[in-house]
Amino acid sequence: MTTQGDRYAVAAIVVQEVADGSDTTELTELASRLADEARRLLLEDRPGSNVTAAVAISDTPAPLPAAATSRGLDIDRQAHRVSVDGRPVELSYREFELLAFLAEHPGRVFSRRQLVGSVWNGADVGSRTVDVHVRRLRMKLGPYAAGIVTVRNVGYRYEPARASLGTVA
Question: Domain containing 129 — which CATH number?
């Protein structure tokens, strides 16, 4: 329990993942309302106290989950490097972004349109651009190519458990 004059901090963190290019206006408004309500409740509890509420929104991608990298396949988003069995793999900018994006969302299927929106920032690219980049990426990943799975008539997903099977689906 705190007494008059004691200083303490209360923090609430809310994380909401949104697709690149998505409108975050509603999310920003919700976060602001939550911060205002928290401030109001704290002021009710401690009338006359100095309470500040703040909202911070980051567009920095979440770090890759531990499960997203397979044994032998290392994706370092901060250094923008990929290695296979300890050997560096040279990837183009878009190949790296495509692999990192899929690995950040293991098991989730993305349509070609969603991938263009997220990896190519919605650029006007050819209909086969994603397929060509996936093919090139698979060639460079060798035995870990199987981690990028084609879902017929839908798109692609990343399955880290399949990454070392040695077959491409």
Answer: 1.10.10.10
Weakest mean pLDDT among 16-20, 48-52, 94-98: 16-20
Domain that holds residue 73: 66-162
- 17 vs 165: CA distance, rounded Å: 30
* Residue 42 tokens, joined: 């704290």
Instruction: Report which of 166, 42, 152, 157 is spatially closest to residue 101, judged by C-alpha positions.
Output: 157
Mark 109-135 as b/e (b = at least 16 C-beta within 10 Å): ebebebbbbbbbeeeeeeeebbeebbe
User: For position 65, what pLDDT does the model report?
Assistant: 47
What is the rounded CA–CA span in Å between residue 57 and residue 92?
29
Per-residue pLDDT band for 169 (boundaries 50, 70, 90) equals very low
Shared domain for 52 and 72, answered yes or no, is no
What predicted TM-score, i.e. pTM, was given to this entire model? Answer: 0.59
169 located within any domain: no
